[in-house]
Known about the structure:
Blueprint: H1 2-38, E1 41-42, E2 52-53, H2 57-62, H3 66-98, H4 104-113, H5 119-129, H6 136-144, H7 158-186, H8 190-198, H9 203-211, H10 216-231, H11 235-240, H12 252-261, H13 266-290, H14 294-312
Antiparallel strand pairs: 1-2
Helix pairs in contact: 1-13, 3-7, 3-10, 3-12, 7-10, 8-9, 10-13, 12-13
Amino acid sequence: MKMGYRKKSMLxxxxxxxxxxxxxxxxxxxxxxxxxxxxxxxxxxxxxSQPALCGLENYINMFxxxxxxxxxxxxxxxxxxxFPSLMILSLIIALLLDKGVKGSGIYRTCIFMSMVVPxxxxxxxxxxxFNNQYGLLNSVLTQIxxxxxxxxxxxxxxxxxxxxxxxxSLWKNMGMLVIFFMAGLANIPDDIIEAAKIDxxxxxxxxxxxxxxxxxxxxxxxxxxxxxxxxxxxEQPFVMTNGGPxxxxxxxxxxxxQNAFKYYEMGxxxxxxxxxxxxxxxxxxxxxxxxxxxxVDEVKSKRKRKGVVSHAE
Length: 313
């Protein structure tokens, strides 16, 4: 009787989980396996009837392709500037909002408002703001602050175009990380902070000795999310500069899209996509290793030592 009820419960659980599992297999599992196979083939889906196996040719040709090398370099520059800036600024804002600064409600609204604006629309709005001739930024710098020397062709010069894309990406993604960090701050017990204050710790000491070390899990979650956003940046350069001027803002994700849906080279595009996936996995692993909980490692090592001693006895 009990086994029958248990089996019915399991079948009911499988039935409820089945739609989600089917969706995951059809729209995630199959495309991953199919694209992995295509990465080892020459396949232009506009002209070729069937993929032709070519081994590692696509992966080797990537490092001979000047456009790929430019997009890889641009993605690396974007990641090195965007990732630490996003993490640090989001953490600072979360700390300030958590302390209940005056007008924090308005600040929360302004920060979180960027999350509800679609990325494509964000790119169009900032394309107008950064416009060289009639853009809002140059007008404000010239007419209000009198800083005409500070005006630039923000989207028409290579270094300023990448800088503009980084600024827009920070504005767009900061709200999400602030939420993650505030969730981590809410999980820190008040007793620990109160005990530190009783022991004579000031706000700066409490922040660096108590609060920041207790955000390890938030660093991992936020770090992985920020790494994915860094390597997979696409809409901002695509809408704002279309990879220009020249190839100064061409990024890996956009170059993958160009090969797949502009030149129809699905094999080569799949190889670049998997190369991006490997980069994300490596950077995520480094982030998780750097923010691992050392206390947990110490506990595990102590348990192992105790197990060795008890076994010897």
